Amino acid sequence: MASSDSAGGGDRKLLVAVYHPLVGRAEALRGAIEAAGCDALILPPHVNGLRPWRDSCFNLLLVNPFLDWQEPSEFVRLMRSIAGSRLLMVVSVRDSLDDRMVALGAGADDAVGWTDNLPEILARVAGLLRRSRIAAGQLGEGELRIDLIDRRVERA
Fold it and tell me: pTM (2 decimals)?
């Protein structure tokens, strides 16, 4: 998984904000994301207010709207408004095609079923982050960065 971002000029890890109503699943996602080289932040329940969600400087928001929200499509639309132009990925514990279609139709960039298949979730997260960096004109990995828009190359 891409582990750094030169958009701010420094070398910082990409941040994935995670919301899952089941604490154990949220912790499993956070641990896997961090093991793959990104920073991860578990967001507090939305019933306590969305300020921490809006104030987080995440690169990707990963949520499960299907357990504690009455209308998942409304939750995904709300998350899209919080994410803005940043990435939004939905996971569903039911691994249902209908759930994924609801999420994609409501504005998610990707949706995947949670079948205890963390490698697939991590691969999708990495793919989204990689494509967003390429779209922003940034290439490279590790010590080498190429910014196609500013026409700069940075090493270490």
Answer: 0.78
CB 93 within 8 A of CB 114: yes
Q: End-to-end CA distance of the chain: give it in Å, rounded.
A: 18
Cα 108 off chain centre by: 10
Q: What 3-state DSSP class applies to 129?
A: helix
Residue 71 and residue 42 in contact, taking contact as beta carbons nearer than 8 Å: no
CA–CA separation, 148 and 93 (whole Å)? 39
pLDDT in tens, 27-70: 999 999 999 999 999 999 877 788 888 888 889 999 998 876 67
Q: Which of 40, 19, 4, 2 is CA-nearest to residue 123?
A: 2
The first and second tokens of residue 116, run together, are 């205890």
